[in-house]
């Protein structure tokens, strides 16, 4: 069942390439879907990160309904995620 669920999860996540760490994220979400008996009853934190755009752009758009559920009215990350971090070097040098 998990092997059949993996390509479905990958499609929902925008056909994200299956390389570490995304291969583990897709596999984990597939296992959760099978174990709970309901697709996306439980969404792993990392799966939510992909849907939010924290892992960058996906080859095709992610499942819109799933993304809306995770974003809870917020906006997806559309820039380089590290650009959202505040600069901390000056603060560290001051300490």
Automatic annotation (TrEMBL):
<dbReference type="InterPro" id="IPR013785">
    <property type="entry name" value="Aldolase_TIM"/>
</dbReference>
<dbReference type="InterPro" id="IPR003379">
    <property type="entry name" value="Carboxylase_cons_dom"/>
</dbReference>
<keyword id="KW-0456">Lyase</keyword>
<feature type="domain" description="Carboxylase conserved">
    <location>
        <begin position="1"/>
        <end position="94"/>
    </location>
</feature>
<dbReference type="Pfam" id="PF02436">
    <property type="entry name" value="PYC_OADA"/>
</dbReference>
<protein>
    <submittedName>
        <fullName>Oxaloacetate decarboxylase</fullName>
        <ecNumber>4.1.1.112</ecNumber>
    </submittedName>
</protein>
<dbReference type="GO" id="GO:0008948">
    <property type="term" value="F:oxaloacetate decarboxylase activity"/>
</dbReference>
């Amino acid at each position: 069942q998990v092997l059949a669920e993996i390509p479905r999860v990958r499609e929902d996540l925008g056909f994200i390439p299956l390389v570490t760490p995304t291969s583990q994220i897709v596999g984990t979400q597939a296992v959760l879907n099978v174990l709970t008996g309901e697709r996306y009853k439980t969404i792993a934190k990392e799966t939510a990160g992909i849907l939010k755009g924290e892992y960058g752009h996906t080859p095709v758009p992610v499942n819109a309904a799933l993304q809306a559920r995770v974003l809870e009215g917020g906006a997806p990350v559309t820039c380089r995620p590290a650009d959202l971090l505040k600069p901390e070097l000056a603060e560290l040098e001051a300490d």
